[in-house]
Fold each of these.
Amino acid sequence: MALQLGEIVAALGGEFHGDSALAIEGLAPLESAQPSQLAFLSNPRYRPQLEASRAGCVIVAPAMREPALARGACIVADDPYAYFARVTQLWKRAHARPAGPAIHPSAVIDPEAVVAPDARIGPHCVVERGARIGAGTVLKARVYVAEGCVIGARCILHAGVVIGADGFGFAPSQGGYEKIEQLGAVRIGDDVEIGANTCIDRGALADTVIEDGVKLDNLIQVGHNCRIGRNTVVSGCTGIAGSANIGAHCMIGGAAMILGHLTIADKVNISAGSFVARSILKPGLYTGIFPIDDNASWEKNAATLKQLHTLRDRIKALEKKT
Amino acid sequence: MALQLGEIVAALGGEFHGDSALAIEGLAPLESAQPSQLAFLSNPRYRPQLEASRAGCVIVAPAMREPALARGACIVADDPYAYFARVTQLWKRAHARPAGPAIHPSAVIDPEAVVAPDARIGPHCVVERGARIGAGTVLKARVYVAEGCVIGARCILHAGVVIGADGFGFAPSQGGYEKIEQLGAVRIGDDVEIGANTCIDRGALADTVIEDGVKLDNLIQVGHNCRIGRNTVVSGCTGIAGSANIGAHCMIGGAAMILGHLTIADKVNISAGSFVARSILKPGLYTGIFPIDDNASWEKNAATLKQLHTLRDRIKALEKKT
Amino acid sequence: MALQLGEIVAALGGEFHGDSALAIEGLAPLESAQPSQLAFLSNPRYRPQLEASRAGCVIVAPAMREPALARGACIVADDPYAYFARVTQLWKRAHARPAGPAIHPSAVIDPEAVVAPDARIGPHCVVERGARIGAGTVLKARVYVAEGCVIGARCILHAGVVIGADGFGFAPSQGGYEKIEQLGAVRIGDDVEIGANTCIDRGALADTVIEDGVKLDNLIQVGHNCRIGRNTVVSGCTGIAGSANIGAHCMIGGAAMILGHLTIADKVNISAGSFVARSILKPGLYTGIFPIDDNASWEKNAATLKQLHTLRDRIKALEKKT
């Protein structure tokens, strides 16, 4: 099913140059787009690709208007990448099939849960007693929302997400452990997206809190009583231990690990694979990764690494002598 | 729903000082507790917080009896943290709603599985042929227990847990792989808790074994034919490769990675994020983490790290000269 | 239920020496096998175990024929490990119970999905509109296959697998994020096995591609638009970020992390726990792991590591002086 360029511009705005009747049959990257496809140019570095592109139309920033016009049809928008994102949304809506029931018959919703009338609960989801699902929120499939947990409006929870399992809390007792029942819940704001099989544990006494606009990728673990601030983005396979307090507008790379009971300021970026063992109180980019190498080189360096502090002492001794 | 202090002490014991009719409306940390809330002091370091606390009652050790009495109501118990854990359990029982059916109608239980009469199987769980679920054990929701796997008594398996998927075993053959069918099962002891979306694979020939009292957090992978000893605690996102033999009373930090076919002695602690590539035969704390740094400093150090063994050689050469 | 040695050899071939009527009651490792069990010897290093083994029969390579015959019954096969794998398969088939319905009644299959007649869809699986499940493929239980995703023939997807959740794509916009709808799908070849709770995201515009014969362990994350080449094997807890292009016949160790938009050549092996931050264009073994140590030693070395580049400068200065 195609969309005419005129329909796209009518829906999303922007300054349009070209034939509004041209049928767009798909979206594609600049370098592979065909004459029936729409592409975008966000980074000026790729301007040579613009000139060579066969795309039927290209979304560009005002600064790229001239070269784009020289090539053919274009939509000029202040932020071409965000415009492109809105086109993908338009595209998806245009191709959606008629909606089935808001709550799939296989979902198990406790009679004391509250689900907004326009929320959508997919197959095999479970929403427990006292949980609340906000307006326009989508639980795709096989999502579990435990007792008393609250999900805001316009959230998307992908397949396999678990919200509100017990936090990991035990008191040592006679060589074993007493379970500390987790009496808090999870509160999730609006416009939050949570990736497949990600888990957010309920709080021990107070709640675990995910603020508005947070985006969590797949297979992430968020421990009890964490707080993740507004619009922070966390990539897949990351672990965040209990009571970590993470600021707003952070970007946490994939497979990072953040220890519990520490604070990360707003606008901190953590490189993928880094281990955060202390609070980070200043914005910036932080990294801690062992660089990969061919195995033979790694072995030699890793062996030396285990004597590193003795090397320092030997340098000091040499410095004294000379 | 409140509990009176007298009810708590009647149920759990301890030496009580104060008004047994005082209604407790919640549990809270010492520093934020209100006059209607119960708190605890476990670590003597926090004694100043005790003196300032507004809590209606505080659980303390015998050594803190005097300052606690000076402040107001208290429960004196040998181990305040374990006592507090038991209060959370009492609290949860007191606030539970009447139980529904022991086996949720949406669960799929094979006719040849054996489920103890007082076990509880939640929504969308699957228990396959020959599996056995012990007395008082709870499968929260969407738990999968494969053929022939055995779960002991009083275990808790959180949402999304997978017990007994095939271990990862293939024999190279003609450029591809022959599957090695996994003919063992998983045997889990009593009083084991397993976090959301954690996976424990079935053994290849013999069984994978999780002993009594083990606590596993969320999103942990346990490979085929591992053994995890009694009362060992493993934090989230940890991976344990096949045939690892882990002792009793260990504590494995989050996002640790333990290679297969190695042995970890009893009472070994592994720091979060550490990679365990060799057996550890002595109790103690072990660590292997690249320290995080601002990215610019990290880049300089990481670049030098790749020449580390040449630095050692240069130091040696200098030592010869001087 | 036992199998006679003659039945095994009749089904799988190989040169047999011994009593074909001997009933084999199980498979076991060489060192623990009983007279009613079948074992194998693949690595010549374990020849002393062969001589001591009590196994009823041993599968050996032609080079081990003599010592095996000196001990008792044996099957001589070109590749004993692959032969053993085929015995496990025979064993499983012989012990399978009569198959139930091909599609479990609790599974939710969209009317516009296409499931091969001999595919098997287990309890609580969800297969969405336009998805296709190939001949002989098994979805064990609680597997989710999203809209338009294609799974080839003879695949095995274990419990909790999520195929085709949205890739993680957002365009920054006004301090928050616009969702980039993920319009691609996931295409999985033939003979692919995917472990429990592993996630493979759908592509943004083009598809995410998993080629024939790939084996993925549990709790792996594969980002949008990745390609994983034929017969590559990936161990558990590994994360592969978006648009990574991984060759054929690679072996990726557990808990590795592979950044996005990079290329890994055919026949590259990555050690478990390594972080791959750059393309690897030559076959070989690559490693990047911080070596574990007792915590006190680690602390001293890690502290020195943060000054590593200054140590290099000090060595340089010393070299100039001497």
Amino acid sequence: MLKRYLPILTWLPHYNRRLGVADLVAGLIVTIMVIPQSLAYAVLAGLPAVVGLYASLLPVVAYALLGTSRTLAVGPVAIVALMVAIVALMTGAALSGVAAPGTPEYLQAALVLSLLSGVLLLLMGLLRMGFVANFLSHPVIAGFLTASGVLIAASQIGHLLGVELTSRELLPRLAELIRGLPELHLPTLGIGVGALSFLLFLRQYGRPTLRRVGCSRPLADLLTRAGPVFAVVVTTLVTWQFELAEAGVAVIGQIPQGLPPLTLPGVDLSLWQALLVPALLISVVGFVESVSMGQMLAARRRERISPNQELVGLGGANVVAAFSAGMPVSGGLTRTVINHDAGAQTPLAGLVAAVGIGAVTLFLTPLLHYLPIATLAATITVSILTLIDIPMIRQTWRYSRSDFSAMAVTILLTLVDGVETGIISGVLLSIALFLYRTSRPHSALVGRIPATEHFRNVERHETETVSHVALLRIDESLYFANARYLEDTVYDLVATRPELEHVVLICSAVNLIDASALESLDAINARLKDSRVILHLAEVKGPVMDRLKRSDFLDDMTGRVFLSTFAAWRELSRPSQ
Amino acid sequence: MLKRYLPILTWLPHYNRRLGVADLVAGLIVTIMVIPQSLAYAVLAGLPAVVGLYASLLPVVAYALLGTSRTLAVGPVAIVALMVAIVALMTGAALSGVAAPGTPEYLQAALVLSLLSGVLLLLMGLLRMGFVANFLSHPVIAGFLTASGVLIAASQIGHLLGVELTSRELLPRLAELIRGLPELHLPTLGIGVGALSFLLFLRQYGRPTLRRVGCSRPLADLLTRAGPVFAVVVTTLVTWQFELAEAGVAVIGQIPQGLPPLTLPGVDLSLWQALLVPALLISVVGFVESVSMGQMLAARRRERISPNQELVGLGGANVVAAFSAGMPVSGGLTRTVINHDAGAQTPLAGLVAAVGIGAVTLFLTPLLHYLPIATLAATITVSILTLIDIPMIRQTWRYSRSDFSAMAVTILLTLVDGVETGIISGVLLSIALFLYRTSRPHSALVGRIPATEHFRNVERHETETVSHVALLRIDESLYFANARYLEDTVYDLVATRPELEHVVLICSAVNLIDASALESLDAINARLKDSRVILHLAEVKGPVMDRLKRSDFLDDMTGRVFLSTFAAWRELSRPSQ
């Protein structure tokens, strides 16, 4: 019982030296690798860069104690950072008119978002509501990520080119960018585009090139992933050496040295109300992404993660972030892959990384003073390229217009009206489309495939049929949305075939008959009785049958319930006397 | 084409004398029978009694031209009247602070409600959105009708007993009633309780008693149904004769003589906005009730009605009502049954009744001056008894706790917070419960029933199985809400049975595989491949297979697609070498 809520107890007793060495090495690698990313995503969220480091510290400890994934690494992630930026700006503007990043209201909004997300995740975890995440369908997530990638790129392009942009909307921002092009700042442009080109080159050709010059595969992987670290070191040195900051290149500047201060998210009720829905979306999106990654990695190692306990782990991490000057966190793809590939065995690797980042914030922040913002923008831009998934969009179009339309609406509305509208509309549209599809169920008249006990659609296969028996296979659960449709189908059948004596409803695909559908079956039975047609059922599943037995329907039904379609056929297909 | 939109063209060319006589007789009977009802429901809606007559005039003509049901009779109905009363009071209070029935704002609200309902119905009809009504599940409708019955009874009890009640909420109203009991008005009480007892007696014992004294069955039916007319005539005469109006019995009083005036619903935008959702509910509820009745009656005569064209017919009737001093109308149960049983053959019977009621409003309204409100209250109270369906509530409880909970929530919220909250919550809860059920689908390992080609759940039947093949029947369409659940089910299966070599997913109950589920099948296939387990499908339906062929899944799948479970069994159950 205790183990379920504190998963650390499942692995700590079996901990040994071999695992310890592996975790130590992985933790140190992660420490170095995630610094650029942590700083970058804090900047993306409109927060001071150091917040990204704070958010990679205590929240990681909380997740190590509560989470069930052995290798998931939590911290600031791009999508969540983007959502924080949009939400903090919008609610800041709505609540106090103060919308600029860096104001105390803005920082408060980020803390309150962390706290609310954390509490919501904990609640969902304790109520075992992990299934809610399932309602974010794959096309909606893919559409949302693609649109977010575009929004993130748009938010970074000013930093990359050295043009100051003030609009937040996508189109005005692009217009401003074009107007501002003549005044672009060449040193910033050099650093930004240089870092971007370097990272893009490394991403595309890094591994094969390094392998060709003799690196082992793990070393080539590691060096490729270290690209952002390398870019940070080089551009920081260049900026410092050539005094580019004085020439107008934006740099991170003074970072307070020391461990994160204790912060108290304000208890402004109107702020909480305004942030409740955004916090819910942030938590669900972060959760879905984390759990997908966690499940994939666990599957590789033949382990299992518990989605409901993951809610608790992520919830704990976010609550801790709210009290330690952080920002909303989630399982990050890049940091998780680095952690996993570096050989992490248990969450202790995360603890090592937390200690490492703690040491950095204690002692090494002065070294980051001259780190150009443009380098961070390049890091962000490259890392979000994975979000924009054009092949997935094309596949979805090919596979299902209905899924595609949910995806398209999510993309469009995310771009035009923000992440909140985008996701919510996508989810609601997915549900509406599913309900619409199930409300007009497919049904098929089936016939016997000669010399077998198998029955298939008469329109698709060569089958045997007899004119006084209709075998109607209903391809959907029967519930309120399609109950009337079923009536129409049967009545049409009876109206067009006057020679009918038996109608057999084949229920192999009927997984549920609700009270409305039961009412309709009653009506069908009565109506067929008037027309001297006998109603039978076949292949009713156990759970459905159990339920029917609790009603009067089976007593009133004119015909029988056959175990199989074949049994119904054998009995009814002989000509009646 | 024209016939589709003007159904009158389908029957008018074949009209003949025999039909004409039948329609004339039915129309005259309906004229007399529906007068008390029309007056009563207008009073229930808080409108002048004559509005009920106006609403039974031109709207009937509109429906006769546009509707597809031969015998449905439209006019004021109890549920719609109740909804109008609640909505007009609430929005009146919200918009202008003037909430009393009889004020010009109140009358305006009723007209605007008619117009909006009419326009919404027409729109839904032209967009062929009749299916929307299916989302009002049977338990939600039954719950809503039951709660409305209670609310209507509560609204009439003051009139019946001669106690003046001012509160609108259920509980304060009852408290007020109890406090007011000492001051009840005896003559009103006498008329109200007298009429009520007479009508209840007639309803219960009328038919058998009349048969016993020698009436034919149709005559007994007709006289029983004429109860309200009889009560109206007798109590009006008594009130007039004994000058009870002067003694304090509330009567209808002066009714303007003449045809309905032309009215123009105001174009106050805030009023329209406030009434949009209530109008939508009124139209959908009215539509569902009308269509159910229409279908039932059409079925008896081997005819069909077109739900989408019914939307147009009801929409036209409501638009006309808005411009002819009426109130929202719908197909009424009582008037329809009277019309049908009186032998109406075509909508011309409705036209005859409209002319008849026109004659009444032109010449006979002075006769209604002394009609006591208490008599109308008794008529309403008896007619709503059919709404309260306790056996249905009990059956639903027995059949499905999930359907019952939707019903209970609808009843409770309708009683406590009004019809709007009641219906909307009921619908949303029904949908949520359906989604929740489908998100955790039933699945069963099946085995062969010896010596047959039939496969059933191993836990419910004696079956043959082999240890290296798992036949897993999935009892639900695969879509985003349950895609992850499917993965969990298969992974658990593989984890617990190390000897497995083949997993066959039996898709006989899978009516849809959406893009999210396809993604999950891909993941399952890859994961099983890692574990050296081969994934097969069996009994994939035609439409599902067509769609799968448009993706890459079938190429990547390690195993095969079998036509039947038996084919998979025959092929795979032999021990592998």
